[in-house]
Design goal:
mainly alpha, 3% strand, two-stranded antiparallel ribbon, 4 strands, single chain
Length: 478
């Protein structure tokens, strides 16, 4: 290579470094690649899980979405939005279809509307989020949140991530009883090979992290995947629910299956809500907005804190751009029928592996786009192995609680409710709502009403309506 070519390449690399602020944030190209890869591995399950959720529900007209089509648009939208966020916000927060909203659509919304109409509601929700972000109102609400609650959100997300991992691994299961509702494995014991693989992966990764080994989470994931493939070759397990002792989601077997993605669902959106009625449509949009608004805010707060990118007040670089792009993820998800796309808490795994810039997002996004064609890339790592990384990251995020002064009970109670409600209700928004409402009430009645931002009063009132939406809808239905 000539000296001129070498200098040109060096200048190009320098410009990219400056654009993504890789050196400024104390990162390296390899750290970003490694972090982006780990984030993809921990998120890849969504390419399988989102189609299972959405295609498994029939709408009010008895129509259902096709699994291959949902899988294709899930990977496409996640890839495009993740790259877009990395280029605009330049933060290592990857995007995919939000599990809370897709479940809400499949379980509740399509009982009242068709799938195209449900996706129309998602598009409207996304537009509202974009407007709130662009006008600065979303930032004002963000700034109004007390520091202790922001940290509590981080800790709550950590427990939420860990709980997701424990459930996905099969270590924690529903007992089917009123008390206790959940328990350890099957009747208090670890009874399946996949769960044993999870435990071994968790211990391997935990030891590597404790010994401060570079790439500990990635090494743990690779090790766990090797164990899973070997176990599959020996026991030939199936997938649940057909095989109760089998893998939770995808079987860790290498195949040569390749197919062209089917994008037939793109543009299947309707804004005709005549069968639903104006009030019901408004309430559904309201619910979607609240879920997306605060889930994303809480997730980005926690991730930025974990990445060491947040300021003392909990804000982080290019906050407005990040919030606008996040809202655009809902619009994109509705237009592609993949459901609202938002920042994924699993990005914490990549951050734990060293990701600090948007270049990690570019890596993750490209892998999502490749996964449209090569399903084994997404399917070879079983959720039990990815779950171990989630538990490790959850433990790391839990450590942030040390920066909260818990000697004041008016702070302790809202923090506690924020942290505990998230995992127990499987919703970041519910935890934030419980924290906001309890903060306003306890602080006000403790003689500290003047310290509460007016916006926090408004948001707390909004959450009160959000939590009471069932009775409110029933009231207006008669």
């Amino acid at each position: 290579m000539s000296d001129t070519a070498t200098k040109t390449e060096t200048r190009a690399t320098g410009r990219l470094n400056a654009f993504f602020e890789i050196s400024t944030r104390g990162s390296t190209w390899w750290q970003e690649v490694r972090g982006g890869l780990v984030t993809f591995v921990t998120m890849a399950y969504i390419i399988v899980l989102n189609p299972i959720i959405l295609s498994g529900a029939k709408d009010v007209a008895h129509h259902s979405l096709q699994f291959p089509q949902v899988a294709a648009v899930t990977a496409l939208t996640a890839g495009v939005m993740t790259i877009l966020f990395g280029l605009i916000a330049r933060l290592p927060f990857a995007f995919a279809a939000g599990l809370g909203i897709n479940s809400f659509l499949a379980v509740s919304v399509v009982r009242q509307v068709t799938w195209p109409e449900a996706m129309g509601l998602v598009v409207i929700e996304g537009v509202i989020i974009v407007v709130l972000s662009a006008t600065g109102l979303r930032r004002l609400i963000f700034d109004a949140v007390p520091y202790s609650l922001k940290i509590a959100i981080t800790v709550g997300i950590g427990l939420f991530i860990a709980f997701i991992g424990l459930v996905d691994s099969g270590l924690v299961k529903s007992t089917g009883l009123a008390s206790p509702p959940i328990g350890l494995g099957d009747d208090g014991s670890i009874a399946t090979v996949p769960t044993v693989v999870f435990v071994l992966t968790l211990l391997i990764t935990g030891v590597l992290v404790a010994r401060k080994v570079k790439g500990a989470i990635l090494v743990g994931l690779v090790s766990g995947t090797v164990l899973a493939v070997v176990a599959q070759l020996i026991w030939h397990l199936g997938a649940q629910p057909k095989d109760p002792s089998g893998w939770n989601l995808n079987i860790p077997a290498v195949t040569d299956w390749v197919s062209l993605p089917d994008f037939g669902l793109i543009g299947h959106v309707s804004f005709d809500f005549g069968r639903l009625g104006a009030l019901a449509a408004v309430m559904l949009v309201f619910t979607l907005v609240f879920s997306n608004f605060f889930d994303a805010m809480g997730t980005m707060t926690g991730l930025s804190k974990e990445a060491g990118l947040s300021e003392a007040d909990g804000t982080f670089p290019r906050l407005r751009s990040a919030l606008i792009v996040e809202g655009a993820g809902a619009v994109a998800g509705g237009l592609t029928s993949s459901s609202s796309n938002t920042v994924f808490i699993e990005s914490g795994a990549g951050i734990g592996e060293g990701a600090r810039t948007g270049f990690a997002n570019v890596v993750t996004g490209v892998l999502f786009l490749l996964a449209m064609f090569f399903t084994p890339i997404a399917r070879i790592v079983p959720s039990e192995v990815a779950a171990a990384a989630l538990v490790i990251v959850g433990a790391l995020m839990m450590s942030q609680i040390r920066s909260i002064d818990l000697t004041d009970f008016s702070v302790l109670l809202p923090v506690f409710l924020t942290v505990i409600v998230m995992p127990l209700t499987y919703s970041i928004a519910n935890g934030i709502g419980a924290g906001f409402i309890s903060w306003v009430v306890v602080q006000a009645l403790s003689g500290k009403a003047r310290s509460i931002s007016p916006l926090l009063w408004v948001v707390a009132a909004g959450f009160a309506i959000y939590f009471a939406r069932g009775p409110i809808e029933a009231l207006f239905a008669h």
